[in-house]
Amino acid sequence: MKIKHVAASQDHVLVVADDGRCYGWGNNEYGKLGTDSTRDSISEPCPNRGMIDHKVVMCGAGRNHSLFLTKMGQVFSAGLNDFG
């Protein structure tokens, strides 16, 4: 697996692999890694289960959220949704 894209915030990291899968680790508060884990912190790369059916090309890591851009031009988010 080769990494095509990396995004990092102050406390979590996201990577996109060449096969379009996305992985995250670090602080998972508010579910911002997009995994199916309810743990507040994940220390090893964990696959983003919500994006399993989509080919991710880029991702972004904000303070309390993450964004995922798919090959089809769709944008998905995970994390805190206080402001919609």
What would you report as the Rg, rounded to the nearest angstrom? 11 Å
Total discrete domains:
1
SSE pattern, N- to C-terminal: EEEEEEE
Q: Structural class given helices, strands, pairing?
A: mainly beta
Strand order of the largest sheet: 1-2-3-4
**How much helix is in the residues?**
under 10%
First CA to last CA: what distance? 35 Å
| Mean pLDDT reading | 94
Runs in which pLDDT lies below 50 for 5 or more consecutive residues are none
Assess the beta-strand content as a share of residues. over 45%
Q: Which oligomerization state do the chains in this entry correspond to? A: single chain
| Large-scale geometry | globular
Please describe the biggest sheet, giving its number of strands, its sense, and whether it closes into a barrel: 4 strands, antiparallel
Number of strands: 7
Number of helices: 0
In short:
The protein is mostly beta strands and 84 residues long. It has strands at residues 3-8, 12-17, 22-27, 41-47, 56-61, 65-70, 75-79.
Describe the structure.
The strands form two sheets. The chain has a four-stranded antiparallel beta sheet with strand order 1-2-3-4, with no helix packed on it. Strands 5-6-7 form a three-stranded antiparallel beta sheet, with no helix packed on it. It contains no helices and seven strands. The protein is mainly β. It has one domain.
